[in-house]
Amino acid sequence: MSKKPLILGIESSCDETAASLITENEEGFPVVLSNIVSSQVEVHREFGGVVPELAARSHIEKIDWIIKKAIDESGRKIEEIDAVASTAGPGLIVCLSVGLSFGKALALALNKPFIAVNHLEGHALSPKLNSKLNYPYLLLLISGGHSQFLNVQGLGKYKRLGTTIDDALGEAFDKTAKLLGIEFPGGPQIEIFAKKGNPNKYDLPKPIFNKGGCNLSFAGLKTAILRIIKNIKTDQEKFDLAASFQNTIEQILYKKTKIAFTEFEKRNNLKKKIFVIAGGVAANKKIKSMLLNLCNEKNYKSIFPPTEFCGDNAAMIAMVGLEKYKLNQFNDLDHPAKPRWPLDENAPFLKGAGIKL
Question: Considering the entire predicted model, what is its pTM?
Answer without folding.
Answer: 0.90
